[in-house]
Design goal:
The protein has about 500 residues and is an alpha/beta fold. It folds into 3 domains: about 50 residues, no CATH class; about 300 residues, TIM Barrel (Alpha-Beta Barrel), CATH 3.20.20; about 45 residues, no CATH class. It is about 35% helix and about 15% strand. The protein has 18 helices and 17 strands. Helix 2 packs across helix 13, helix 2 packs across helix 17 and helix 13 packs across helix 17. The C terminus is likely disordered.
């Protein structure tokens, strides 16, 4: 069998002509000369290197299509019938309504979460409701890298950002509903950092939290973006971006005039930060007024995971988000998305072993978030239980955006009198269909009736996650999610048992 998809993909609207596919290659077993060309090979024959990236980007989300040999579905959730931990053992107090979901983190400024959830970095699609819904639900959210590209009014002076007016709207999407829980964080990649985005955001826009991005599960390298012309290539180079080939090359200028110029690509710089640079950088940003510092790390080599954790420990970073293979939202290489990096559960195992070493040495332990393909409360529960209390939260990115889009789209259809049949059975008005508006009114008053329904969708979705978590916790007679551990999990497969026994990475029995 194979775990990889065949040479067709929703990324590119490709499909296989034949029902029978050759497993090793992913090609149709019978490839005929008169095929119209519907697979990934055919698309590459036409579009060439562009097909390293999805052709279906824009107003879409993109995630892995690979079936991994191990994930959280290899575990069931345990249950207990006697006792109660975390509340008095009485019928009145040992109930789902008394399960504590609160989490707290932060070294120099405390951040409290209403539930163990973070909405990871994103700045596409319906980001306004994504951030607003996070604030309503009381969780942290992150503005994605290169947010500056969303602003046509961005102003640079001598290679530094001096005006980024669109950032105000991004921050206000959260701040308008901020009820003292969670935090909005600005993610920065190398380009953002070199352009002075952290300084501008802190000093001009009052940002209190910066996330340094080392990588994400779907995109271990930065994207190469094809440019329309040499003129555009020159403009991008003038902004300090890496452009290949060099548009200032005199030979290329001559070729351009002759109509023979090659394609130009921009390429965002890879993170080559080291300890000396980041230690000084983090100290500087805290001096400027950003008490909370985050890292975003993907499933790279385990020695890199350890280096990032130790750096975070030394710099007293508040939180690291570890992003496992399986997720993704945007402009990500298709094969890299499917075939690169540690899946979330394996990355969690690797991180926990490293964390034990740092703990034994007496080092600072940052809060940890695990993300990468999570969408339901059972997955969140299993990840927290597997983490043995070391993980503060689970990241819900694509699923939260799906809720934002659904809420907004349904709201539009209600106004048009075009409610989908499968939804109409629940009601015909906003009040009837959005069942958790009552919870929002209790928090914000009657003005909640005027909230964007996309944001209400995010709030409602996260409300469901929280309510489901309370049921699983009560099922295990643990009334505080901080009490979860691996005794709350039942391994269903030999792979799951090997993972619990620490045998996954080393067949000799040593975990690392």
């Amino acid at each position: 069998m194979t775990y990889s998809p065949d040479l067709s993909s929703a990324f590119n609207d490709t499909h296989m002509r034949s029902r029978i596919v050759s497993v090793p290659s992913g090609l149709c077993s019978f490839c005929t000369e008169d095929c119209a060309g519907s697979c990934e090979i055919a698309l590459a024959a036409v579009l060439g290197k562009q097909t390293v990236y999805p052709t279906n980007t824009g107003n879409n989300q993109v995630a892995s299509e690979k079936r991994y040999p191990i994930d959280f579905s290899h575990f069931n959730i345990n249950g207990r019938v006697f006792g109660a931990i975390g509340v008095p053992e009485t019928y009145e107090e040992a109930s789902i309504f008394n399960v504590s979901l609160d989490r707290t983190y932060g070294v120099f400024k405390e951040v409290r979460l209403a539930m163990p959830v973070v909405l990871p970095a994103l700045i596409k699609l319906n980001w306004q409701d994504y951030f607003a819904g996070a604030a309503m639900a009381g969780v942290t959210c992150v503005i994605g890298e290169e947010a500056r590209d969303k602003d046509p009014d961005l102003v640079l002076d001598q290679g530094k950002i001096v005006d980024f007016p669109a950032l105000r709207g991004m921050l206000d999407a959260f701040r308008a509903y901020d009820r003292g829980l969670g935090q909005i964080v600005l993610q920065c990649n190398v380009e953002d950092d070199q352009l002075g985005l952290p300084e501008y955001a802190i000093q001009k826009q009052g940002v209190e939290a910066i996330e340094f991005k080392f990588g994400q599960s779907a995109k271990g390298t930065q994207p190469a973006r094809r440019l329309k012309s040499r003129k555009e290539a020159l403009e991008k180079k003038a902004l300090g971006m890496l452009v290949h080939p060099d548009p200032d090359d005199p030979d290329l200028a001559a070729k351009d005039e002759a109509g023979c110029c090659p394609d130009f690509y921009t390429y965002a710089r890879l993170p080559l930060w080291d300890e000396d640079y980041l230690m000084a950088r983090i100290a500087r940003l805290r001096e400027l007024g950003a008490p909370n510092i985050y890292f975003k790390m993907a499933g790279y080599d385990r020695s890199d995971l350890e280096r990032v954790i130790r750096l975070a420990s030394q710099a007293k970073v508040d939180m690291i988000t570890f992003d496992g293979a399986g997720g993704g939202t945007g402009y990500s290489p298709t094969k890299m998305m499917n075939e690169w990096g540690l899946p979330a559960i394996l990355m969690e195992e690797a991180v926990l072993v490293i964390l034990e070493q740092v703990r034994a040495e007496g080092g600072h332990l940052p809060a940890l978030t695990l993300t990468g393909g999570f969408s339901s409360e059972d997955q969140v529960f299993k990840a927290l239980a597997y983490g043995q209390g070391s993980f503060t939260a689970v990241g819900l990115c694509r699923s939260a955006m799906a809720a934002a889009m659904t809420g907004r789209n349904l709201g539009q259809r209600i106004r048009q009198g075009d409610i989908p049949r499968h939804m109409a059975r629940f009601g015909g008005t906003v009040q009837e269909l959005f069942a958790d508006l009552g919870d929002l009114r209790a928090l914000y008053g009657r003005k909640a009736d005027d909230f964007s329904l996309g944001a209400v969708g995010v709030f409602s979705y996260l409300n469901k996650i929280a309510f489901g978590l309370k049921h699983f916790a009560a099922l295990n007679r643990k009334f505080d999610l901080a009490l979860l551990d691996r005794s709350d999990l039942i391994p269903l497969t030999r792979d799951a048992k090997d993972l619990l026994a620490g045998r996954w990475f080393d067949l000799s029995g040593r975990s690392l």
